[in-house]
Amino acid sequence: MVKYVVKTGLYGYHKKIVISGLENIPKDKPVLFLPNHQSALIDILLIATDCNRKPFFLTRSDVFNGKFLKRVFSYFQMLPIYRMRDGRETLTNNSFIFDTCAEILNDGNAIVIFPEANHNLQRRVRPLSKGFTRIIMRSFELYPNLDIQLVPVGLNYKNAVHFPDQVAVRYGKPISAKSLFNVKAINQSSQIIKDSVALALKELTTHIENEYDLTLNRLMNDKVNFLNPSEVNKTILSYSQQQQHIEIIPVDQEKTDFFKLLFEVLNFPIVTLWRLWLKPKVPEAEFMGTFRFALAFICYPIYLLTIFLILFYFFPLALALVITGLLTFLNVFLVKYVLR
């Protein structure tokens, strides 16, 4: 039930969500989903609601604060992963987590882990950490015949900090970790797996290798479709074969239009709450979409219910329902078809 409620919220919040490659996900084998990481919790929710599996999630340990949150996260199959920034002494806890992951995979389940080990809005695949390969090596150590399928996932946002945004989620072909593993060359096997996953991710999402700012600026001025990373990467390759311009061309700024103003008037309380209270609290740009979605997901149903109750107090039930329904329809229509 939670899955479908959240999925409804995601599809209502985004202008467009395109999912492709679901046929590449094995249904009866252990799977490690390995996505690039740009937009904090939104990345996780997009995979959780559409991947056709019920995966476990490796999550930064600092969010597991308090017994209540631990119970909630445990219910949603989230496991803490400890990083150096959490304190060197906490890293020993990862041994137990890696063993737990091995058991999960041995049971034929799926796990989501971000191999870049951090999030960043830049349109490039960052160097992969060795955390996910440690899980693989530990799994083979405990269960030598385990056939772990590595499924790279490319998350492609048109503009992750903008509303409404568009996103394409691309599932790549599975990579058999067993076929790349050599028990006599653990370190070499780990590097081969990392290289294979990195190469796959660079084909599933936009990857700007060199002259990042200049190349990104050219892509934006050429109005490429970031939901189609294959074509974008071909365009980047064509740039590398040309002489790059030295100065950066300013990208056209969006202008406030009537429909945006209409949307803000229709949702004035929520827009005000966002701009004056929550938006200033967003710690990093990568969390912008997550905080905004959370506010809309929680507050919009309350806002609609409040409007309905006020109307019902003064007018007949049918009229209250019609007006509330029209407001909902108009908001969805604006997000999906009108707002830029």
From TrEMBL:
Keywords associated with the record: Membrane, Transmembrane, Transmembrane helix
Domain Phospholipid/glycerol acyltransferase: 31-158
Taxonomic lineage of the native organism: Bacteria, Pseudomonadati, Bacteroidota, Flavobacteriia, Flavobacteriales
Listed name of the protein: Phospholipid/glycerol acyltransferase domain-containing protein
Domain of life: Bacteria
Residues spanning the membrane: 258-278, 290-313, 319-339
Gene Ontology molecular-function annotations: glycerol-3-phosphate O-acyltransferase activity; glycerone-phosphate O-acyltransferase activity
Pfam families according to UniProt: Acyltransferase (PF01553)
GO terms under biological process: phospholipid biosynthetic process
InterPro entries: GPAT/DAPAT, Plipid/glycerol_acylTrfase
Key word Magnesium present: no
